[in-house]
């Protein structure tokens, strides 16, 4: 039987100071490790990739647009001359693309035969006004922000488990959102078939993401899989506060002005990426935790409390089972444990 830990014991449900000083500009050495970042051609994904590359990691930049991926690759190599980086075409709203990309990783088409972490970052922030669906009839925002990453994590699980060692436990990080504190949406109508609204679609998809990230860690532990799952959010990180990077972030003068007016509550995407990177590589962090900026919208990353809906055990189980049905797949937990020799 599955173990259901007491949420208060299993999760860190109170805002907690960081266990050690964390400097995003001086990260622990990541030489020899490989990380896959989804949505890496711009925004948070790009800056997380750059920070990891500066720390010595091999970074796989993934995205759905080959031209934008190439631009991000060139920008990263220009800004980090010794960077070890490759690109991977991956559209998280397309199951076929997900499986093809995962097969490339599993098949050893990249420089290193290991995968030490995955940042599940890609998503839609500016959601469509009217409900849209993918080719297979799934609601677009749910698929892009949550369901596609559920499938990708499952496809990469055995590869990650084989990369575990005495000194490193591979980790997947799910991109949560502070917006989940602003709307207690319980995703009963998970595809919003009975009532779509752009804001609700975004917030509800992030409730799903956070519930999946927390539930994943519990199931990984129960199965003895040496992979951790962590949820992190970037606060209020905007392009107008972000350094200009050719081909990656080129805000207009008007966007810069708006960004400046929001300075008291906003931060750059470069700084927002710090929470995601810390959640991915800090050895002091444990699976099942939730991290974000100290002042909610901005600041250095600290341990925080997820929304009540995201951390509710019954909601988490229901969302997980619904995603299994919608994706038509179950995570290969037992096989991943065997592959790791557990």
UniProtKB/TrEMBL annotation:
Pfam families: adh_short (PF00106). It comes from the Bacteria. Coiled coil: none annotated. Gene3D superfamilies: NAD(P)-binding Rossmann-like Domain. Keywords: Oxidoreductase. Belongs to the short-chain dehydrogenases/reductases (SDR) family. This is SDR family NAD(P)-dependent oxidoreductase.
